[in-house]
Amino acid sequence: SLSEIETCSSNETCLEDESPTTDPENDTCGVYLAMSTLPGTGIGMFAGKNFTNGDALMQIGDHTIPIVDFFAQHGMDMFFLWDDYTWNSRILYMEHLALEETNVASPGFGAAANSFMDFVNADEQYPTNSIPQQLHRSKDPGAGAFTYFHSRHSTATREVKDGEELFVSYGSKWFLRRKEKLGAIPVAGDHARADKLYRTFRRNFLERKTRTVE
């Protein structure tokens, strides 16, 4: 390997090549994109190493971009590609930025992770608000050219194993409002109710039938 290469000087004194060392922990990919384990959802976000509860999933958080009064300016019939990938501005304390409505885009982890409500293992935090003091809102044209909201970190909500898909909460209402488009999607509590139903069916029918046959 390169670290084993020795360079000999003119006086025949051999010196070990000073190759840069690497830190295996820092070289480990924290998260990565791959086909989701949820059918029909495309790409998902996966853990590239083990995480414990409260661990940051990425070293750098997302920038969050306010989309202000989109439909007020373009009309309700205007197609908005990001409509399914924006957040409620009230949740992120950004609703005051618009005259009528603010949508918030969170490209990065926020836009890549899928949601499976009963198996959520990642939580998205609030962004940091940093307003540059050197720009005047009405005099400097660059004042509105970039977002003031950044560093929206995501953390593990429980122990997550290497290779496990990361799921965030879209909220049950997100799925219920799109039932005609997406079909019936399990929301929060559905798996517990299904498990209870199965246990009742097994106890009242399957096990009783077995005892009757015996």
Secondary-structure content class? alpha+beta
Strand content: 15-25%
Number of strands: 11
Radius of gyration from CA coordinates:
26 Å
Q: What is the helix/strand order?
A: EEHEEEHEEHEEEEHHH
Q: How much helix is in the residues? A: 10-25%
Quote the distance from N terminus to C terminus: 70 Å
- Taking strands numbered 1, 2, ... along the chain, how are they ordered across the largest sheet? 6-7-5-10-9
Q: How does the overall form come out from the CA principal axes?
A: globular
Can you describe this structure in just a few lines?
The protein is α+β, with helices and mostly antiparallel strands.
Overview of the molecule:
It is a single chain. The chain has 214 residues and is of the alpha+beta class. The chain is built from 6 helices and 11 strands. The strands form 4 sheets. A 5-stranded antiparallel beta sheet has the order 6-7-5-10-9. A hairpin with a 7-residue loop joins strand 3 (31-35) and strand 4 (43-47). The longest helix is centred in the C-terminal third of the chain and has 24 residues, at 190-213.
